[in-house]
C-alpha cells in the first residue's frame, strides 16, 4: 500500500508517498497474484482487492496514534479469504475462471461487514465479522469438542464466554448463480440496499439480496440472429440516489439511461448519450477505441463519467448530444495504435473514479502511470506507481511523456513506455484524498501530504 500527498488543490506539483506494497515486484509473479479489482467501503476504513486467483484481501485503516494524533493511519491486512474457485461447465465444455471481476460493499448496518464479489458467472455475498470471545463449558461436549455420553452427565453447567485472540471470519451468506450465459462485467448495489444488478455482454439482471434462485431480466440486447450482433454491454451502474434509474455503456461508445418505472424490461432507454464522430478522425481503429470500458455516476448523481481507450468524458444527465468535458488520457498513443492492436493492448479495459467531492477524476495508463484531472482548474498531472518512486515519506514527482523532438532530462519517450505495466484498477476514498492504485500484483495507497 502507498499514500498520496501534496493535494492542496490536488494539482500542486508534489505528492507524498508511504510505500507498503502488496506482493512483490519480482519476476516470479504468478498470474493468480495480479490484482483485478479495488474498492473502498462506504466509510473508507476498509479497502478490498480481488485477484485473478479468486482471492479477496481486505485492508483496514489503523486508528490515529495517541503519540502522533495528526498522522493518519496506514492500511494493514485485515482479512484474506478465497472467494471463488475454478469451475468447469460440463454442458458447454467451458472452464470458468476464479478471477474476481468486481467487488462492491454494502453499507454497514451492524458490527459485521458485507460485500459482493463476482467472477465471470457467480456472484457471492460475503459476511466479514470479528470474534474475540469463545464459549466454554458445554454440557454435551468435552473441552476438546468430543460428544459426551449423556448417561455420564450429572451436572448442568452454564456456558461462559472467554476472551480469545481476535479472529476475522469471512463466511458466504448468499450465492447467486446460473443466471448469466456470458461473462459478468459489472455488479452494482441499488440505493434501496435491497436489490443489486449484474451485467454481462448482452443482459442485465436484477437480484433481491434474499432470493438466490431467481433474478429478473431488466435489459436484453441479444438479437434473434447472433450474426446481427453489433454491440455488447461493457459496464452498468445504478444511480446513487434514485433506485429506479441506472445506466449502461456499450462497445459502440454509447450510454443508455433507463428508468425501471417505465417498463419491466428496459430495452427502451429514457436517455441516450452519444458524441457524433468527427469524420476527419475516422480510422480503422475508431470503433475499437470508442468502446467504453467504465461508466460511473458522480456522487451527486448529476453527472456520468465514461472511460474509453484514449479519453475520459463527463456527461451532464440533462445533455445527451455531447459530453460537457473531455480529458485526453494518453493522446500520444494515437500514433501507436497499430502496434497496440497487434499486442492486444488496445483491448485493455481501464477504470475511472471520482474523488469524494466530484471535483477531481482519476484513471490509469501504461508504464504504471495514472492521471488526475482537476475539473475546476482544468489542470492535470501524470504520476507513476512504482517501488522506486515510493520510498517512505518520499515525494511523488509528476511525469511527462515526450512525443518527439528533443527529450528533456525528466521526460520519458513514448517509445520507451512499458505496455506490460498498466494501471487498470483504481479507487478513491469516499471523503478524503486517499487513493488506491493496482499495478499488476502490487497495491499502492497514496494520501495527502501530512504536515
Number of continuous helical runs: 2
- CATH architectural category: 7 Propeller
Shape: globular
Radius of gyration: 24 Å
Keywords: Repeat, WD repeat
GO cellular component, one term: protein phosphatase type 2A complex
Protein name: Serine/threonine-protein phosphatase 2A 55 kDa regulatory subunit B
Family: Belongs to the phosphatase 2A regulatory subunit B family.
Structure overview:
The chain is mainly beta and 451 residues long. It has a single domain, classed as Methylamine Dehydrogenase, Chain H (7 Propeller), CATH 2.130.10.10. Helices cover 2% and strands 40% of the residues. The chain is built from two helices and 33 strands. The protein has a four-stranded antiparallel beta sheet, with no helix packed on it. Strands 8-9-10-11 form a four-stranded antiparallel beta sheet, with no helix packed on it. The longest helix has 6 residues, at 337-342. The chain is globular. Mean pLDDT is 87; it is low at 1-27.
